[in-house]
Hints:
CATH class: Alpha Beta
Helix content: 25-40%
Order of helices and strands: HEEEHEEEEHEHEEEH
Number of strands: 11
Largest sheet: 7 strands, mixed
CATH topology: Rossmann fold
Number of helices: 5
Strand content: 35-45%
Distance between the termini: 26 Å
Structural class: alpha/beta
Number of domains: 1
Radius of gyration: 18 Å
Low-confidence stretches: none
Amino acid sequence: MRFRKNLERMGExxxxxxxxxxxxxxxxxxxxxxxxxxxxxxEIPVITSILRAxxxxxxxxxxIFDKSPNGFITAxxxxxxxxxxxxxxxxxxxxxxxxxIVILADAVIASGSSMELAYRALINKGTPQxxxxxxxxxxxxxxxxxxxxxxxxxxxxxxxxxxxxxxxKSYIVxxxxxxxxxAFGAKTNPV
Length: 191
């Protein structure tokens, strides 16, 4: 639970930082004792997360952007007999994101390929105005990969920490370990 709550807290912190980049307008707000001039956001971001490690971060984002529409994407590693893997995006549920501000969250950016494939699946729903990709930890290699593969896109990448090493199996060192397992328990084989 502590790990899950810390992921949620990090989602809140990053959401707060992203909120500073949103467009605002001045409106008069009626309070019980009078009228106040306040800056309010003109756009609400669409929050999307890669399941399952991104779910606690998603909840933290929703604690700040409580009126945001939500989307979810599954991305998993499929290993072959030699120990190499490919990424499989199996499922996506997302509202229309055309001309919207989008937040795409996962716990880690290791090689960058899961995030790239999730982003590409997402933009099949429409071209966003801007996308904020967030992760709590990333490898230098994964960030370089994303910047190269998504260089033509309108996006910002937000990470809590960057680690130098990525192993041959695309694990970040020292990294976090399997964030999904740490947040929700070890995966079991489906029946």
